[in-house]
Structure formats: C-alpha cells, structure tokens
C-alpha cells in the first residue's frame, strides 16, 4: 500500500514538473498548456519565474528564443518586412494561436482554421479560394488538399513578383506540379495523371522550361485562387469561357471555332490530322534518310577501296582541269542560305529541346528577352530573303537562268539514280554514266525548294498565331506545328547525310569540294550526251 502511495506521489510531481521546474506555478496559474507546448516546462519561456512576487517588467516570452531559424525565415518574408516598417503584420500568435494552445500545424483543425486566419487580412483571395476546388476539398476534410501555405510558402512568404517565391511565374509549373505531377496523388483523387507532361510538351511549357517569364503558365488559364473544374460555368477553362481566357494573350482566339483541347498527349488526346502527319513522317524520314545512308555508304566504300587503298598512298582524284560549278552570285546566295539554315536549325531545335547543353548560349538572357525566338525569326527573315533573291535573280539574269536549267529534272535522272544505287550496293559491276548535273545535285536542289515552301508557309502561320486562331481551329495550328517540326528534322538529316557527304566526306573530294568557296570543283566529271 505504501508503495502505491509513493507511486501516485511521484506521478503527481512528474506532471507538475512537466508544467514548470517549480511546481508552485499551478497553485496560482490554473491555465493548463495544450497542444504542441504541453510538454514544455513553464520556465523555458517565462524567465525570472522563481522571484515572487514576479517582477512587473519581466520580458514577454519570445518565440525566437526557441524557434530562431523559423524567426529568421519570417523576418525575410513579406510579413516580417511589413512589421519592420511599422505596418500591419501578423505575429506568431495571430497564425498559430496563443502560446498555451498552439496546435499541430499538420492537423486538419489547424489547416481549416489557417484559411480564416489568412482571410482576416486577405478576404478577397480567401473568398475566392473557399469556393474553389481546393477550398471545397479542405471544407470536406481532405487532409492532402492544398491551402494557402502549400503554394505561397510558410514563414518566408515572398510576393509573387519575387524570383524566390513559389508562385513566381518561373516557379508556378513546379508548384502546381508538386501535386498534379505526382501520379499516385492524382490517381487517388481521380485526376488526369498527364497534366504536367502534356503541358511541358506545349509551346507554353517549352518556353517556360527555357526561362521565359511572360509565357502563359498554369494559373494563366486555370486561375489563381478561383480554380474551378472545367464543368463549372464560372471556370476560366469552361468551354464557354475559353475564348476570353485564351483571348487575353491571343486576341480573337476561339471566336469562330472552339479552341479545343490544350493538354494534348501524343497518340491519346490529339487531332486525327496531327496523328496522321506524325505517322507519315515517322515512315518517310527513316525511309528517305535510310536510302541516303545506303547509297552513300556504298559509294564511300567503293571509292575508298579503289581510289585510296588500292591506289598510290595519298593520291587525290583531282580533275585535270577544274570545272566551274558555282558563279560568284550563286556562291553569295549559298553562303547566306547556309548561315540562315544553320542558325534556324540551332535556334529551332533549342525551342523544342531547351534542356540540352547546346541551347545554353541562347538561354542566358531568356528571362529578360526571348532570345531563341528573336534569333530564329531573324534567321527566318534571312532565309526568306535568300529565297526571294534567288527567284528574282533567275528572272532577271539570263546567265543564271541558263546555269539553273541544268537542274531541271529529266527522264535520264531516273535511270541514272537506279543504276547508281545498284552500283553502290554491289548489284552492278561497272560504274554507270552520270551527267555533270546528275540526280545527286537535282534531288538536293529540289528538296531545298520543297522544304523552303513548306517551312516558310508553316513558319509564317506559327508566327501569325493570333491571326490563325481567329480564323482557324487550334487543331490546324497543331497540324502546322507537327509539319514544321518533322520537316525540319528531315531537312537537317538530309543536309548532314546527303549534302555534307558529297561536299566533305566523299573520298573523291575529301577534305572538301571547294566549289562553294572558289567556284571550281576538284571532282572529275564527264558529261554524257
């Protein structure tokens, strides 16, 4: 029995000591400590408690004495700055409640109360939030639903214009993606799991990844605090409101035709015409480039074996008399064409693949200026100018026109191409006759002409996207985008595989055919009637 009494006494003393190092506090102060501070002794916060009566000038307990790192973060935020400047700003107790009743911040009770706390200073924003999908989820007790601090931060809250703020335009995608990019979380709430991936594949997503601060992000379309499902008539992404939403950046968009889906997943939610275009090029590109590779590999192996390995060491197949292949004006056009094409390919693929190392020089100032777009459009203007100059030069100059006539297709080209291909593959024993301007040059020239027409037309439509969205459905621009991209891939590969081979890597002219510099070619050619 005595043992039991001693146990009860020790338990009482232990409970009193948990409230204070001096158990006498509870004799005068009946208030008990609840919440996260329940296990903290009174003396930890209340200094000079052992003097009685207590000094009247005893300093008020400071939260920073125990929570110094958090206090520093708060001082760096908008609230701390406002407090230092003498403005109205919440202190710790305003958000967390009285020190004796501080609740666990992760508890559902605290999260629900925190919204009203923020609403005391931000009533308009909280009013919109409460009727949004996130606010309704909080009201229904969904523990994982986001509220104010999940987006804006906790203690070091920064204005949305600050580059360190989670809601800064440069970070909105990642902030929203912390929930909508999590597949498991999206599935648990029955949400689409591809919203982040599909956004990243759009022009807006690619531009944002490149560092653009002005391109549309998640909140530009879905709203900020007033996010509603697309089925809600008040939602900014409701079909009836898309014209106004998209029209903020693209005036007139969706007035004549419905805007259509924005989050497009390749092969799943896309216009049938886009899928047809992609499938067409996925067949044509490997077929065309594959035939080029076979043709050139056979040509390279035969020439390497017969002209280099079996001939005198270092012997170069130089023609007896160098033939004039390019006139001075043509060389100038070629130089401008080459510069514009290289810059177009570099800047264009940098728009599509902003995470690659070779895009870094173009991304250095992307947050201030759209460098990639400016460079790409500048190169496009040069490309168009070269095309127009070439056309008018043929009209005005008989000399250039007579030279150009050598590139007109003829029936003989088909036979030469068939015989040349067979010879390179080892299906023919003797070298075929080949015209001075054969199927090799003609195929390349007319491919450039075709590519120029397609790329200029589709490029202009993409540049004039506001006009196109006023006149045509968005699906048409999706098709144009696909054509522009795949045609660029085909053109770039063709230049590398076909043109560079015959100008640089062909053993007959290696290390380079100098026609583009001097007008004279080192290649030995025979004109067959």
Describe what is shown at a glance.
The protein is mainly α.
How large a portion of the residues is in β-strands, by DSSP E? under 5%
Order of helices and strands: HHHHHHHHHHHHHHHHHEHHHHHHHHHE
CATH architectural designation of the domain at 283-521: Up-down Bundle
| Number of continuous helical runs | 26
What's the number of extended β-strand segments?
A: 2
CATH superfamily of the domain at 283-521: Transmembrane di-heme cytochromes, Chain C
Here the CATH topology of the domain at 283-521 equals Fumarate Reductase Cytochrome B subunit
The poorly predicted ranges are: 1-22, 312-319
Mean pLDDT over the residues = 86
Q: Based on helices, strands and strand pairing, what is the structural class? A: mainly alpha
Q: Please summarize the sheet with the most strands.
A: 2 strands, antiparallel
Radius of gyration, taken over Cα atoms and rounded to an integer in Å: 36 Å
- What is the helix fraction of residues, given as a range? 55-70%
Oligomeric state, counting identical vs distinct chains:
single chain
Cα separation of the termini: 127 Å
Global shape = elongated
Order of the strands making up the biggest sheet: 1-2
CATH class of the domain at 283-521: Mainly Alpha
């Amino acid at each position: 029995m005595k043992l039991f009494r001693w146990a009860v006494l020790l338990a009482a003393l232990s409970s009193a000591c948990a409230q204070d190092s001096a158990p006498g506090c509870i004799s005068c102060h009946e208030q008990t400590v609840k919440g996260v501070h329940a296990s903290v002794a009174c003396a930890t916060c209340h200094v000079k408690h052992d003097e009685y009566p207590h000094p009247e000038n005893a300093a008020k307990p400071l939260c920073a004495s125990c929570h110094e790192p958090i206090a520093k973060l708060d001082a760096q935020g908008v609230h701390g700055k406002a407090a230092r400047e003498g403005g109205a700003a919440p202190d710790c107790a305003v958000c967390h409640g009285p020190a004796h009743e501080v609740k666990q911040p992760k508890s559902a009770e605290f999260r629900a109360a925190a919204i009203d706390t923020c609403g005391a200073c931000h009533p308009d924003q909280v009013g919109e939030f409460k009727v949004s999908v996130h606010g309704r989820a909080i009201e229904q007790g969904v523990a994982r639903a986001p509220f104010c601090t999940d987006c804006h931060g906790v203690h070091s809250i920064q204005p949305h214009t600050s580059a360190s703020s989670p809601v800064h335009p440069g970070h909105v995608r990642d902030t929203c993606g912390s929930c909508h990019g999590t597949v498991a979380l999206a599935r648990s709430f029955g949400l689409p799991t591809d919203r982040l991936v599909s956004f990243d594949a759009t022009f807006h997503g690619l531009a944002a990844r490149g560092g653009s601060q002005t391109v549309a992000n998640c909140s530009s379309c879905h709203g900020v605090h007033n996010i509603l499902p697309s089925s809600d008539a008040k939602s900014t992404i409701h079909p009836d409101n898309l014209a106004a939403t998209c029209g903020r950046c693209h005036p007139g968009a969706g007035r004549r035709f419905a805007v259509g889906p924005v989050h497009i997943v390749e092969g799943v939610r896309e216009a049938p015409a886009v899928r047809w275009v992609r499938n067409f090029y996925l067949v044509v590109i490997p077929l065309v480039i594959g035939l080029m590779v076979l043709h050139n590999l056979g040509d390279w192996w035969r020439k390497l074996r017969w002209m280099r390995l079996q001939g005198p060491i270092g012997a170069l197949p130089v023609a007896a008399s160098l033939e004039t292949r390019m006139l001075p004006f043509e060389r100038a056009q070629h130089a401008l064409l080459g510069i514009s094409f290289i810059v177009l390919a570099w800047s264009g693929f940098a728009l599509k693949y902003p995470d690659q190392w070779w895009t870094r020089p173009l991304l250095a100032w992307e947050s201030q200026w759209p460098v990639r777009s400016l460079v790409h459009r500048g190169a496009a203007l040069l490309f168009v100018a070269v095309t127009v100059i070439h056309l008018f030069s043929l009209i005005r100059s008989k000399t250039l026109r007579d030279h150009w006539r050598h590139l007109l297709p003829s029936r003989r080209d088909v036979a030469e191409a068939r015989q040349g291909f067979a010879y390179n593959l080892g299906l023919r024993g003797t070298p075929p006759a080949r015209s001075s301007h054969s199927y090799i040059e003609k195929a390349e020239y007319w491919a450039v002409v075709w590519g120029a027409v397609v790329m200029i037309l589709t490029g202009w439509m993409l540049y004039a996207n506001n006009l196109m969205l006023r006149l045509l459905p968005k699906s048409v621009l999706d098709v144009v985008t696909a054509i522009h991209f795949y045609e660029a891939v085909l053109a770039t590969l063709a230049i590398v595989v076909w043109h560079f081979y015959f100008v640089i890597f062909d053993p007959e002219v290696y290390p380079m055919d100098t026609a583009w510099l001097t007008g004279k070619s080192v290649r030995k050619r025979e004109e067959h009637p």
